[in-house]
Amino acid sequence: MDKKYNKKNIQKDIKPSFANPTSQKEQKEKKTIAIKSKESWLIAFGITLAIIGLGYFFLVGQNSDMLFTAQGRSFFTTNSTFLDECIKRPGGIISWAASFLTQFFYHPALGASIMISMWIASMWLSKLAFKVRNVWMAVLAIPVICLLVSTIDTGYWIYYIKQTGYWFYGTTGYLIAMLLVTVYHLFKKRTDLIIATFFIGFSYPFFGWYTLLALIYISVSSLVRFSKETTIADRYLIPLLPLVFVIAVPVLCYFFYPELRFIDLWTCGFPYFINDKLISYIPEIPFMLLAITPLLFSFLPKRKEYTGKQAWMVYLVTIVTMVSAYIWIDASNFNNYNYHAEMRMNRAAEEQNWDKVLDEMSGLPGDASRQMVLLKNVALLNKGEMGTKMFKYNNMGEPPTNGFDTLQVHMVQTAAPLIYYYHGKTNFASRWCIENSVEFGYNFDNIKMLARCAIINKEMDAARKYLDILTTSIYHKDWAERLIPLTENPQLISEYKEFDTVNELWSSMGSVLDGDNGLCEMYLLNYFSNTMNKDCKLLQELTLNYALVQKNIQLFWPRFFLYAQLHQNQSMPIHYQEAAYLYGHLEPNNVNIKQMPFDKIVAERYNGFQQLSQSLLATGMNTKDVGEAMKSSYGDTFYWFYFFCRDIHSY
């Protein structure tokens, strides 16, 4: 039977509905807030994913070769001597840890993953330390963006940076600073805060500059943290105490650092970009922003959610920050083609992958640098193709592109040790390794080169010392252990094919060390073009090729005839024929070339070259334009090189 509803029953049924104090409007607002809360988490995780994406794109996608070079230009050993050297300055523990982490750039994706993970940890620690809401994650990402920029904007400063562990130094330091601030804010009582400040302040010898930054952040956040109702001691003592430590602790520690200038006490760990002729402030900008930005974190609104008219501000700040960040990162990325190609060629030459060296030259979109031209010649020498392919590759040689400043790049600080080594000039290679190490610090590349040169020079005690150092590294250990048997039995060198060419050249020249005035290419050009050696075919061919580069007819002919004598019953390489045919026509009274057995194509291309050049000059074109017009047809000949390859910029 249906229930009968009377007035009393109806009131009873609807009473619970009216008993609920939440109105429909409040329910709607509550629902809106819940949606905004989800959106805030989406913003936080979206920014996190964006940083991860930017990191992998610019570090791994755009700069893998630079990261690999960075680990080669860095150094780490478990030997206590290295640790002692690091802690001679405040922040030494960061230097030590950063040097250890830089090793992982041997595999760029692995090293980048470690670095990006540390960035993400820093972002979320700063969120926890300053109690910042999810919606402001884009602001918290600004220091991390600064770290990304500082990694990819160095350009040729990669060869001149003096800070130990530079590549991970800022990342490690900022993570430690955020960790110190987070630990400090775990405490609530006045006594605990004072004790925490004391311990953080005296971490200065370990963390240097980043300890001082943490103390400043703590001071600012403490001013905001305490309300008007707190005691005067809490309101003023707690915020001022960290500043006292910022001033006092470096002064107290000064006497423990005899090598440190007093003026540098408060910036020890901040990177400077200085060489003998330049102080560059542009690459310091990311580190300045990194230091300043966290001061704003304490003032970010603490409201949990944003609704209505306030929500647009969050989205605007997020969008503007991330768009500006991408523009800045992209503009700072040093993506000069030759800069990266040089690094790839250096690595290939180190590994004696000569085909890869030549592939890099083949794929050039413009002119090569002189360093690349020399490495190309080294590759051809080792493949026995100098006389047939030397002029088939770009030989112009433009100077390095500096990008954002006027840094003067010298080959003796970039690839000269490697180039000298493959020319058999091991003393020059050792000399520049040591000079560069004294000024910029020892690194894996230099120590490996010193070990190679010591082996060639039969200085086995020195070689063993260098190899023992490398056995303490992660990625160069196997390389060193493979060569250690040579130090105990030098006769085994014939079993190591990687030393064949260098050892042959070195054995024919001896170990004389004269002067190059800091100009690697000019020294090699003058030395080899004026050298004669009938006992070593490899050395004699090298001298003939440098005579071609000199464009000196008097130097060419004796070396050309000696080459023919040493290679009887063998075909004469095409470039040597071209040079002889050209010089025979330029100075017919010196050498009669009519009886020489030139290949048919040599005369044909010479005649075609002369006809085309004369016809183009007759139209009024200048020499440079004529050279460009003829490059596609004759750019692979000695004829074109002789007449049009000029204004070579050696450095």
Summarize the amount of helix as a percent range.
55-70%
Strand content: under 5%
Number of helical regions: 31
Kindly report how far apart the N and C termini lie.
106 Å
Shape descriptor: elongated
Q: What would you report as the Rg, rounded to the nearest angstrom?
A: 34 Å
Strand order of the largest sheet: 1-2
Total strands: 2
List segments where confidence is low: pLDDT < 50 over at least 5 consecutive residues. 1-5, 10-19, 29-35
Which structural class best describes the helix and strand composition? mainly alpha
Mean pLDDT: 90
Largest sheet: 2 strands, antiparallel
In a few lines, what is going on in this structure?
The chain has 651 residues and is an all-alpha fold.
Question: Could you characterize the architecture of this molecule?
Answer:
This protein is mainly alpha-helical and 651 residues long. It is 64% helix and 1% strand. The protein contains 31 helices and two strands. A two-stranded antiparallel sheet has the order 1-2. Strand 1 (273-275) and strand 2 form a beta hairpin. Helix 2 (24-72) runs antiparallel to helix 5, helix 3 (80-86) crosses helix 4 and helix 25 (520-529) packs across helix 26. The protein is elongated, with a radius of gyration of 34 Å. The N and C termini lie far apart (106 Å). The model is unreliable at 1-5, 10-19 and 29-35 (pLDDT under 50).
